[in-house]
């Protein structure tokens, strides 16, 4: 719809010769009730007057019969009910009530011989157009009321013609799914332009091309705009049928919806989504920013930990030359908040023991991880007497069950010897830890349940195990402080989420890459 001033023909007017002015002005439009505007008219020229309240009066040259070339006209306007009541202007025609589209008073000032010899054109502003409106003339009654008489049809109005075309387009294309006043298969459409463009005739935020696009290709707009996607979800998930209408046809359709909404004084429908849009946007933007920072920090931390990774026991694993690999794969969980380091002197892994110790017996040793924390941990078997430490890994086809050598859970072990299994890792911003001391046997299953603890409590529990030459420490990773800050901000962002809104449908784009400003922020850590 091309936005412009809404112009309609004069709906109701009171027009008098000057000889009536003294008798009627004080009673009809008393001083101080309605503002008076005085215009100087050159009767030898065509003149167009623009009044303060938006009326347009076209006066052809010579239409005013006067002895003077220059004529002064006084204009008073009453378009709103407040103005009509203030001036005491009744709206009756021979005792029958009328619906007023507005009233205007025009009179000559300063002489009593002025007459209007031809028609003048008057257009007054109105919030909507009504095809049944007529032009009335006001006659003063003995009781100072006005009787509106001599009704005449308004001049042909192109806008009314366009509105009739818009109604036909609505009936054919929209009425099967939409009503103006209530929800049907689709949402109520009253004031659709006002809702889409908060200032009714200010479409600078998106432009009308945006609205045209939605009507012609709704799926394409829904893919990038959350408001329409939320509407789709609210009304059953069906996408509106696209309509191949011209710009002119769409202008007529939108104009009829707006005019009919105003004419029927329909309230703006409340589908709940508009109320959620701004608050959801604030929540999503804040969450996206901190998720982006958090993702970047996690990526940097993982790369840093892998780059500086060392072998836990100080000895690299020996190459496996015994055929197809059957050994378990040690857990490789990259730390985000905590780095665990293991320092041991003279310790050897199971491969080394097999070559130097014939007193070992092939045994079965399984560790079952139970409880809430089953991810992001490292598992170790320690046998102090033979200075052995071996990293554990998951056994195939056995959920949450781990071994330390062969994939079937077997491992060569000294018998009747004190040993430990230790699991340590992190969950969000907490250290998780579990340990168990046991005596080696030929077949054993050990259950471990990791619990969350502090870094300090973790060190105390390790110290109590008396691991002899083994020192296990935990320190914050490079980005731990910034990660904790990001998580705190994400929790704060959750407080912005509106309680009665589903913000998921407003999510449009994936989290973007880190900006230069955010990179600068991270340097503070």
Shape: rod-shaped
In this structure, how is the largest beta sheet organized? Answer: 6 strands, mixed
Average pLDDT value?
Answer: 76
Supply the number of structural domains: 3
Radius of gyration: 42 Å
- Helix percentage range: 25-40%
Low-confidence stretches: 1-31, 198-205, 304-325, 521-525
What does this 3D model show about the protein?
The chain has about 525 residues and is of the alpha+beta class. It folds into 3 domains: about 10-155, no CATH class; about 160-270, Cytochrome c-like domain (Cytochrome Bc1 Complex, Chain D, domain 2, Orthogonal Bundle), CATH 1.10.760.10; about 305-480, no CATH class. Helices cover about 30% and strands about 25% of the residues. The two termini are about 55 Å apart.
List keywords for this structure.
525 residues, alpha+beta, Cytochrome Bc1 Complex, Chain D, domain 2, 3 domains, five-stranded mixed sheet, disordered N terminus, disordered C terminus
Quick recap:
The chain is α+β, with helices and mostly antiparallel strands and 525 residues long.
